[in-house]
Amino acid sequence: MKTGIPELDRVLGGGIVPGSTILLGGEPGIGKSTLLLQAMEKIACSGVRVLYVSGEESAKQIKLRGGRIGAASPNLLVFVEISLDAIMGTVTTHHPAVIVIDSIQTVYSSALTSAPGSVGQVRESSEKLILLAKKTGIPLFIVGHVTKDGSIAGPKVLEHMVDTVLYFEGDSRHTFRIVRGVKNRFGPTNEIGVFEMRDRGLAEVSNPSELFLSERPTHAAGSVVVPSIEGTRTILVEIQALVSDSNYGIPQRTTIGVDHNRVALLAAVLEKICGVHLGSHDIFINVAGGVKITEPAVDLGIVAALISSFYDRPIDAGVVVCGEIGLTGEVRAISYIDDRIREAARMGFTQAVVPRTASVTAVSDASLDVCHVRNVSEMMEILFNG
After folding, report:
1. How many whole angstroms separate alpha carbon 11 and alpha carbon 221?
2. Tell me, which fold does domain 6-206 have in CATH?
């Protein structure tokens, strides 16, 4: 079943599988309820009945949000209830095509004496709702609160019970949102959907590469573009680095969007192998646009940004960099190199620095020059003329 929101369908693996259970988590105010209400409106407009169960907002509050985002279909049923028995009774009575529970931490079962949101209540309510979805074939969306470290609150078994786990990433104070699939029994994991929060709800971003590079500064030291693979999608992201003299006894190491330990490792490689002495400098790394990148293919981009900031020498705006770096400074091969090159050529880049062992066969744009490097020193020669 299509949700009517292609970016959400992409993360789900093409659409909603009958009888499946989808868990959606994210920070408060990030847009979980808004996204699901928009999706339910799209499905309801196709002529089927959907049930939106809320335990956190009143019907009047939901109607106000619905009016703002244009959700007014008569097939969109809103039920304000936290009793599990009442919810299951309503599902049996109305036979909706899709169910949304917002949120599972507010639902309680009369079989237990503990308060709603406790581990026992979350487990009991989830088990019965998931069993109901499997028996009836009705897809079920569950909204889950998150803890301080960003994981789904409640028992970890909840993520094992459901078929798909989606996380809303981004900062509620910024307009861009990313929905990432971290588990999917019916599609690829680590797939992302990109949205922009507007007055009338969440709007899809069909070309995230253009979005993430739209505010990229020109001729700025410490900025480099890296083609990253997110699920089945290739996106170009800007990595920014700032290396400055430390005013404290212990240099700071701050990273946003990349692994902190990975940056420390790459800084040590630069110090030992390349003679770039960063030990007495503060290092700040940021992935512009709020994207979180975990793949090692961005290593070469992080190193290039660090060197660029350290020597205050900008990297040419038409260059993309990708490759994994080993502890001896060698540049190792990465996967999906052809897809990365295609996206770079499509976005108008003219040069790509890639590992020497990478076999590039998909350079359709003759204006894009592919430079192969064996180690970090060769990369420095190409980007900074030695």
Report:
1. 35
2. Rossmann fold (3.40.50)
Closest by alpha carbon to 337, among 316, 351, 327, 352?
A: 352
Q: Which residue has the tokens 């490759």?
A: 323
Token output for 150: 């960003």
Of the candidates 148, 158, 65, which has an alpha carbon nearest to the alpha carbon of residue 104?
158
- pLDDT tens digits, one per residue of 164-199: 999 988 776 677 888 999 999 998 888 889 999 888
The pLDDT score that the predictor gives to residue 360 is 67
Model pLDDT for residues 289-344, shown as the tens digit of each residue? 878 898 999 999 999 999 999 999 999 999 999 999 999 999 999 999 988 998 99
Q: How far apart are CA 337 and CA 9, in angstroms?
A: 26
Residue with tokens 């078994």: 157
Q: How far apart are CA 331 and CA 263, in angstroms?
A: 15
Kindly state the greatest CA–CA separation across the chain: 73
Cβ distance 220 to 214 under 8 Å? no
Three-class secondary structure of residue 75 per DSSP: coil
Closest CA to 145 of 292, 33, 10, 293: 33
Predicted structure pTM score: 0.82
The rounded distance, in Å, linking the Cα atoms of 364 and 219 is 27
Which of 3.40.30.10, 3.40.50.1000, 3.30.230.10, 1.20.1250.20 would CATH assign to domain 211-384?
A: 3.30.230.10
Q: Which residues of 5-31 are buried (b: 16+ CB within 10 A; e: fewer)?
A: bebbbbbbbebbbebbbbbbbbbeebb
pLDDT of residue 173: 67
Q: Is 86 exposed, middle or buried (0-12, 13-18, 19+ CB in 10 A)?
A: middle
Rg (CA), the chain: 24
Using omega within 30 degrees of 0 as the cis cutoff, is the peptide bond preceding 103 cis? yes
User: Considering Cα of 376, then 379, then 381, then 386, what sign does the dihedral take?
Assistant: negative
The full set of domain ranges for the chain reads: 6-206, 211-384
